[in-house]
Amino acid sequence: METINNDPLSLWGEETSCYIQQHFKVFRNLVTQAEDFAQQGKYDAAAVYADVAASYAFRRHCGLFVSQELEQVLLTIGQKAIPKSHYPSKNSLLRDQPRKILHVATGVKGIGGLSRMIWRWIQQDTESSHSLVLTRQPLLDVPSILRDAVLNSHGNLYTLSEIFGFVSAAKRLRQIAASADIVVLHISPDDAIPIIAFANKEQSPPILFLDHADHGFWLGASISDVVINLRSAGMRLSQERRGIEAERIALLPIILPSTQRTLSRAEAKRKLGFDENNLLLLSIARAPKYKTIDGINFGDAHVPFLEKYDNAILVVIGPGNSEDWSAAVERVKGRIKIFPERQDTEVFYQAADIYVDSFPYTSITSLLEAGSYGVPLVSRYPYSDVSAVYGADAPGLDDNLIRTPNLEEYTAILSRLAEDEEFRLSLGKATQSKIAQTHTSTNWEKYLEKLYLRAATIPPVNATLTPSKMLITELDVLLTRLFFLTFSEQEVQLEEMIKARASSMPLIQKWHIWRNLGKNHRLTWKERTTFFLPSSLYKFLEKSARFCLKLTK
């Protein structure tokens, strides 16, 4: 283990370093249990513990961004539990025929950058047929825009969520992928199913891994022929901390639709109920990206600016009531407007004079969408280059996004933008032009075609990864602190995580996990019983037992 101290986080360093080492011990214990089950041939039970280990490593950072040992468990399961099958040569990708692209996602939503990336990719790549597999989500919950994109491309939709057991789900995924030319993984960091499914590389189509969670631990490095990074900071981390070879890393900008204003800025403000002379600051992101850190919430950070300019209003879409900004709202007499997550954001982008990035987590898709309407962009970044993945960067942002190292400079640059209309408008126009040149339509397709060509020609990845090495740098300390804010202790209760994943297991595999839980966690009689029975049935039996006792008295 190596420890590197950096001044920006010196107050957090010693305490957080201890946490990271504690997390690493818990993680290693989970991996060891997964290895033990795999050696005994209890593959579904091994997959449960491997999946939990990955989930824990993402939520409670343990100084790793990849684990060779954990991925090897999943590779062993796939190689031993899934029969070998023939896969045709990927040279078919080079022939003059429509490509068949299989997108694999853990789940999708109507909001958020990941789901948007999937459906916009499908909409833009009209030369290919696109299908979608969801590993943990029913098809009923697929947003209509994504469903339509798949069907219009003559593709199909599949779900693995109703299949019992990791191995059976992985077998089904392998079957679905047999007809695909390329598989693109858009999976959650802890989704073990695709690693099991594609463990036999010589019998798999080329695997592209979309690194949408480049700031944390994830599964998939061992099976990915090409890792797709969305920005340069993610590319560097892929090499430096995940051990991905440079030739297996590709840059693919986040795709945006071509943007056309339907309203002038003044018209959009009036439609939202604001005066056209109001200076409108806008921020849009999912609620977790606005966590309060070190006692200063997102609203507090804007109070000095809002007190200075009484015509300014801050509109924030995403946090809803998840954070208490009431003191800040009161100080500026209600000029901070907070909304929950919503999909109809176009009119807000068209009304905005300045876009301010979410904090402490950046929202790159929202930055790009705002910039595509000609809005200048400002982001806070109080860290060193070591923690670059916690800053905002993308090919279309790098020249024009303003990043500030502290709140004083943040307020100063907002003030300049407020007072200098010419600067504000010219910066917004330059931002809009650069984004259009990189992230939209045929410009984006050039990156995609290079990616498909790389998939067709690169040799399959060698599943051997560099042995995992725990590090504690400024980035690791920062990540640990932020994830403490994001994920509660309840979300990392190991017994509950294990039981949740075991709930859809075949009975014999449940038995193995039940015995292991009883040995390691001392389950109560009730916990042992409810592990095998559905909670509704247990409650019915419990109620019936009480009734019978009353009758006997």
Main pleated sheet: 7 strands, parallel
What is the CA–CA distance across the termini?
Answer: 65 Å
Strand order of the largest sheet: 4-3-2-5-6-7-8
Question: What structural class should be given to the helix and strand makeup?
Answer: alpha/beta
Overall geometry comes to globular
Number of helices: 21
Q: Which stretches are low in confidence, meaning pLDDT under 50 for 5 or more residues running?
A: 1-9
Please indicate the percent range of residues in DSSP E strands (runs of 2 or more).
5-15%
Total strand segments: 15
Average pLDDT, rounded to a whole number, is 89
**Rg, Cα atoms, Å:** 25 Å
How much helix, percentage-wise, in residues? 40-55%
Task: Please provide a written account of the structure.
The structure is a single chain. The chain is globular. It has helices at residues 10-39, 43-59, 68-81, 113-124, 144-152, 166-177, 193-197, 232-240, 265-271, 298-308, 326-331, 346-351, 364-371, 407-419, 421-439, 441-457, 474-486, 494-502, 507-521, 525-532, 535-552, and strands at residues 2-3, 99-105, 128-134, 157-159, 182-186, 207-210, 226-229, 249-251, 279-284, 312-318, 336-340, 354-356, 377-380, 402-404, 471-472. Mean pLDDT is 89; it is low at 1-9. It is α/β, with parallel strands linked by helices and 553 residues long. Strands 4-3-2-5-6-7-8 form a seven-stranded parallel beta sheet, with helices on both faces. Strands 11-10-9-12-13-14 form a six-stranded parallel beta sheet, with helices on both faces. Strands 1-15 form a two-stranded parallel ribbon. The longest helix is centred in the first third of the chain and has 30 residues, at 10-39. It starts with a strand and ends with a helix. Helix 2 (43-59) packs antiparallel against helix 3, helix 10 packs across helix 14 and helix 18 (494-502) packs antiparallel against helix 19 (507-521). Helix content is 47%, strand content 12%. It contains 21 helices and 15 strands.
